[in-house]
Amino acid sequence: MAAHGNGPGMGVATRGRLLFGGDYNPEQWPPETWHDDVRLMKDAGVNLATVGVFSWATLEPRPGARDFGWLDRVLELLHEAGIGVCLATPTASPPPWMGSRHPETLPRDENGTVVWYGSRNQFCPSSPVYRDYARRIAEDLARRYGGHPALRLWHIGNEYCTSCWCDETARHFRAWLRERYATLAALNEAWGTAFWSQRYDSWEEIIPPRRAQYLINPAQALDFRRFSSDALLECFVAERDVVAAHSPGTPVTTNFMPLFAGQDGWRWAAEEDVVSVDVYPDPAAAPDDPAGPAHGALVQDLTRSQARGPWMLMEQAASAVNFRPVNRPKPEGLMRQWSLQAVARGADAVCFFQWRASRQGSEKFHSAMLPHAGEHSRTFRQVRDLGAELGALSGVAGTRVEADIAVLHDWDAWWASGQPGRPSAALDYPAVLAAWHQALWEQSLTADFAHPEARLAGYRMVVVPQLYLLTDAALDGLDAYVRGGGTLVCGFFTGVADADDRVREGGVDARLRRLLGIARVHEWWPLAEGETLRLTDGSAASVWSEDLEPADATETVAAYAEGPLAGRPAITRATPGEGTAWYVSTLPERPTLRALLAQAARGAGVAPVLPGLAPGVEAVRRGAFLFLLNHRREQVTIPLQHPHTDLLTGHTHADGITLGRYGVAVLSASTNRTTPTTTPTSKVSRICDGGEPSP
Predict the structure, then answer these.
(1) How confident is the model at residue 6 (pLDDT cuts 50, 70, 90)?
(2) Measured between alpha carbons, how far is 9 from 15 in angstroms, rounded to an integer?
(3) Looking at residue 683, what is its pLDDT?
(4) Second label for 530, Cα 20 to 30 Å away, from 28, 76, 419, 644?
């Protein structure tokens, strides 16, 4: 599919502002409440409200009926108050009448069980009936509001996550496979159907990977994951094209879920004008455990990389969520800090779910910008303060975060490595990815994410935590990158399979083995849950080990010190061509992994944003601005080499700055707070003020 418009990073020309707001669901409240909402939004500095995400049953109370009067009034109220609208197509949550009148639109799980209405996302993405109703409501919304002066952005659907295994899906899956393989012979070869007598003689014999007697064909399951992502993407693209036809120049987005397995984020991002994401780290352990801010940083870096620049934080919680077993509120200052962390890592919009806390429904205990306690609450005070601070950061809007390190990430590799029948069910791809990214984050080593087939020449160091599946193009690209002078740090169980989940000859692709200086990997030797092994450098490692044989010129950096692989290499380093290639055949403990990546970065000429920071202090540079965030329980003083002005306070700090718990500073080397007249803008930051389409 061709990318819409000019792709991520383009937009509508305005003066450039950070966006601030959240989901607004006025249909849950009587009209007299709407005026109070608008008053308090203005008080809080809100400049963008997302409207209509779950309003399908209100807009279309019965098939073909339309009730737009209430939405007309809401958009006029927001426009009169100077608040822009992110207008949603409500297609994530079909009305009950659709499931009742058209049960064929309801999804079925892999057991064939109907997933009934009564919640949300109860639709089969392949259903032509659902798609037709979705297109109609989207077109009527776009026809009515495409030229509305309040409209700043279209929001298609919401958190696309539905999969289906019904007969309609089976027909759609077969059509997708025909396009991919053209012939049954090619499909049988790709799926390895000679195993277990699974050869297909007719396209009609093929079904989705429903519940079976034992293990499903892994290539079939991998293709179904690809298909399921594409089926949802077709739904998004169809609605996107409808609204774009009625409002040319108005950007379009949908909100990703953080590091979600169900969508190939690289493919989806290419179809969006603005890339947005929902982020809900768990505040329960903070500030004693960096897991929360580290998770936030990972999702933010990934989203920025998908957007190829500034992006949009579509949803976060003002305080507690409602979906964990125990839902702790955010302590004073944490909501502010995590919001500004997103800005530090490239967000030009900070939004929440939702504006006003619901009194009924499944999310009535999910926090909101305006909580049940009302406008005199601690939460609303913090929301109002955050809005004021974001207003002071207009000079940040549109600026970019530069990174010298790329972390390779791929949904195909994730899907393939997570299937049953592998060497270890304890090998969890997201956990490994998070461990490696956190090791970089804890040292203020800024990293982008990149697709394995992306151009890597602009990065000094490339990190591959674990990519079981690598295509020929990806392998050739890595080889050229390293031999041309790049530094590669590669994790275990990588390059094992091709695009069809076929194990490479020798168990690991020969190109990668030559690049890493490995003669052969004799066997994979996974570790039991909780099991660790000592290495010869005195550290411990977990999850995985490998019986590998290095090539003659390869250096053994650390070996296994115990167990059946005692004496065998654990971490190696080779120097093919002009570059350097490290191989890490296990998961080192956190201090060791940090030290290893720091050593590799130094060798590649990559320095931290600020060296020598105390643990728990984060430093990110965005454009000309230095963001400092203290995730520690106690205050910390950070030395500065020359005077900086904090945009949040206006104070100039000559040689150091002290941050308390959850403290944040946004520093500029300038001694004043004047916004440059040449402030860069992005599609996100240009939304709020409207204006003419950019060239």
Answers:
(1) very low
(2) 16
(3) 72
(4) 419
CB 344 within 8 A of CB 647: no
Residue 505 CB contacts under 8 Å (≥ 6 apart), including other chains? none
Task: Locate CATH 3.40.50.880 in the chain.
Answer: 405-604
Given 159, 168, 272, 389, the catalytic residue: 159
pLDDT band with cut points at 50, 70 and 90 for residue 672: very low
315 is a catalytic site residue: yes
Are 252 and 156 in contact by the 8 Å Cβ rule? The answer is: yes
Give the lowest-confidence range in 14-23, 254-263, 555-564: 14-23
> How confident is the model over 118-135, as a mean pLDDT?
97
End-to-end CA distance of the chain: 23
Q: Would you identify the CATH topology of the domain 617-668? A: Immunoglobulin-like (2.60.40)
Within the chain, which residue ranges are assigned CATH 2.60.40.1180? 617-668
Which residue ranges does the chain devote to CATH 3.20.20.80? 52-274
Quote the pLDDT of residue 288.
Answer: 67
Provide the CATH topology of domain 405-604.
Rossmann fold (3.40.50)
- For residues 261 and 411, is the Cβ–Cβ distance under 8 A? yes
Considering the domain 52-274 in this protein, what is its CATH number?
3.20.20.80
76 catalytic residue (yes or no): no
Please indicate, yes or no, whether the overall pTM of this predicted structure exceeds 0.70: yes
Structure tokens at 507: 């168990």
